[in-house]
């Protein structure tokens, strides 16, 4: 069997850029610590809206190919070498926002058979044998069909992998504590006049915001991981514009939002013995591998 580092982290995301927005600091920090970080992205995001006017001619497969290049650059910024597209490049198409006719395209990810897509992910899980899986909640964080589907496929794959011989000890969903989001948007509103953006998004625009007591882990990316995250976000130039100073960014809706350098999670499977899950900041895990026995190689 392939020799892999003792600690292994798997992240499952819908489109290129989601990994950097949600987990960029976490990925950079763990990669720098020698953890084997694997990213599986489910689609190439070929229905995404493009920000730079000079790139707006890119649509469909051409945009997908371009975004694949952006993803490669983002992973270089984060120091992540193992990144894959679910089922191979172009296997699943971007489904577009909820309610659009795009959702009905037979090759889009939303129309994919969950068990078949999960089977592709199980292959990765059995190869990498991660101790930690990170994905979205059952609403995909904010209701995008591809994010919901990524959640379903990731959770189903964890189940199928267990039956096939590898139980992932810990599973997390991406979160932002409501108080953190509210505080960050209050600062954003104060600082907006100094930013290259004219309007602010709202707390409700941020995926995965929940009451603070549901958040069980926080990963502090202050320093090099935060810088790597900002660089990774900039690599996704068709989708993201980062303001100078690296504290705010916009998506194609041009609404400013905070760039979180501490990233938050809700543990939904497993847990360190004797540690309480959830609650105020002081009780949260500060390491996604807390309590994991990384000498155990068999399920
Ligand atoms: Zn996405």
UniProtKB/TrEMBL annotation:
It comes from the Bacteria. The keyword Zinc applies. Residues 274-299 are annotated as: Disordered. Coiled coil: none annotated. Keywords: Hydrolase, Metal-binding, Zinc. Binds 1 zinc ion per subunit. GO terms for biological process: mycothiol biosynthetic process. GO terms for molecular function: N-acetylglucosaminylinositol deacetylase activity; zinc ion binding. SUPFAM superfamilies: LmbE-like. NCBIfam families: mycothiol_MshB. Belongs to the MshB deacetylase family. This is 1D-myo-inositol 2-acetamido-2-deoxy-alpha-D-glucopyranoside deacetylase. It comes from Streptomyces humidus. The gene is mshB.
């Amino acid at each position: 069997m392939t020799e892999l580092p003792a600690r292994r982290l798997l992240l499952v995301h819908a489109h290129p850029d989601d990994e950097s927005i949600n987990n960029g600091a976490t990925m950079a920090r763990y990669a720098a610590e020698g953890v084997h970080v694997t990213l599986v992205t489910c689609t190439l995001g070929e229905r995404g809206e493009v920000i730079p006017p000079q790139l707006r001619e890119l649509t469909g497969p051409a945009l997908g190919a371009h975004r694949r290049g952006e993803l490669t650059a983002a992973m270089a910024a984060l120091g992540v070498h193992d990144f894959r597209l679910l089922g191979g490049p172009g296997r699943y198409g971007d489904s577009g926002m909820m309610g659009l006719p795009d959702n009905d395209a037979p090759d889009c990810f939303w129309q994919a058979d969950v068990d078949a897509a999960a089977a592709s992910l199980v292959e990765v899980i059995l190869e990498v044998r991660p101790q930690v899986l990170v994905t979205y909640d059952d609403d995909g964080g904010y209701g995008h069909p591809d994010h919901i589907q990524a959640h379903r496929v990731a959770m189903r794959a964890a189940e199928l992998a267990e039956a096939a011989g590898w139980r992932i000890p810990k599973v997390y969903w991406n979160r932002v504590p409501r108080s953190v989001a509210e505080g960050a948007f209050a600062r954003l509103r104060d600082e907006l006049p100094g930013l290259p953006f004219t309007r602010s998004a709202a707390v409700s625009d941020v995926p995965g915001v929940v009451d603070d007591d549901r958040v069980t882990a926080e990963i502090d990316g202050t320093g090099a991981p935060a810088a790597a995250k900002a660089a990774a976000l900039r690599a996704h130039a068709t989708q993201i514009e980062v303001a100078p100073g690296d504290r705010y960014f916009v998506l194609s809706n041009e609404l400013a939002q905070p760039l979180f350098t501490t990233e938050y999670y809700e543990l939904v499977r497993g847990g360190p013995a004797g540690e309480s899950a959830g609650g105020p900041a002081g009780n949260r895990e500060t390491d996604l591998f807390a309590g994991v026995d990384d000498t155990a190689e068999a399920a």
